[in-house]
């Protein structure tokens, strides 16, 4: 059994919650942070072994307070992000894109900075990007810029912060609650998933558990740092 302590920021639903559950299965003491009290209450009912904290990743003081309460964090996993930003460049709402940078890039970077004094010397930082950072999907320039900025943190921080390890995971299409938050109807989502399934080499859309397994791998493997795992079913290899 592990004696490690993990903090999953964005751990109340979807990929983050799946990762928190897997880290707990490894024997870690797992704390999760999320903004919504209803989601925290729901997780307390379904997963009482996960320790919940109401936390806005965009509020550095709140992050510092939670991490100070925890003490030492061995594995920091940050999966927060927003829902907007895609669309043709000619019609892209730059105000919305700035909000999305706040919700994902600045929130992830700020969480690193706030948690850093309490990270174990042999600990790890794991971020969540997306394959748009590495692809050429029309209508994705805005979100590609956000995810590209996150991935640009990984290699320099891996060197700067070593022996603390820094990695990221870049998923493609994932069957997760994100689509509902983004306002996509079930019908539109199913149509998109059908298109993706036909195009991907794996012929399947990822589950949240698929991506969580990659997050847990890079969070816990002591030989991985400065790495971005493309957990996208081969999306970067094909045109959609």
TrEMBL record:
Signal sequence interval, chain numbering: none
SUPFAM superfamilies (alphabetical): NAD(P)-binding Rossmann-fold domains
Source domain of life: Bacteria
MF-aspect GO terms: oxidoreductase activity
Keywords (A to Z) from UniProt: Oxidoreductase
UniProt entry tagged with the keyword Glycoprotein: no
One Pfam short name: adh_short_C2
Cited Gene3D superfamilies: NAD(P)-binding Rossmann-like Domain (3.40.50.720)
Entry's family note: Belongs to the short-chain dehydrogenases/reductases (SDR) family.
Official protein name in the record: NAD(P)-dependent dehydrogenase, short-chain alcohol dehydrogenase family
Organism of this sequence: Asanoa ishikariensis
Lineage of origin: Bacteria, Bacillati, Actinomycetota, Actinomycetes, Micromonosporales
């Amino acid at each position: 059994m592990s004696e490690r302590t993990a903090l999953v920021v964005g751990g109340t639903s979807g990929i983050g919650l799946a990762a928190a559950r897997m880290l707990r299965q490894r024997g870690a003491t797992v704390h999760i942070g999320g903004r919504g009290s209803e989601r925290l209450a729901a997780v307390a009912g379904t997963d009482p072994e996960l320790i919940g904290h109401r936390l806005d990743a965009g509020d550095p003081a709140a992050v510092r307070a939670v991490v100070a309460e925890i003490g030492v964090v061995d594995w920091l996993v940050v999966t927060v992000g927003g829902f907007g930003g895609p669309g043709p460049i000619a019609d892209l709402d730059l105000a919305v894109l700035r909000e999305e940078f706040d919700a994902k890039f600045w929130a992830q970077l700020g969480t690193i900075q706030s948690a850093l004094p309490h990270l174990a010397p042999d600990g790890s930082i794991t971020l969540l990007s997306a394959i748009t950072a590495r692809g050429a999907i029309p209508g994705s320039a805005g979100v590609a810029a956000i995810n590209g900025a996150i991935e640009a943190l990984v290699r320099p921080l891996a060197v700067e912060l070593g022996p603390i390890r820094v990695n990221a995971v870049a998923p493609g299409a994932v069957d997760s609650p994100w689509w509902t938050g983004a306002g996509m109807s079930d019908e539109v989502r199913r149509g998109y998933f059908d298109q993706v399934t036909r195009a991907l080499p794996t012929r399947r859309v990822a589950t949240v558990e698929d991506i969580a397994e990659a997050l847990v791998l890079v969070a816990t493997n002591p030989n991985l740092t400065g790495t971005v795992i493309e957990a996208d079913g081969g999306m970067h290899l094909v045109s959609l």
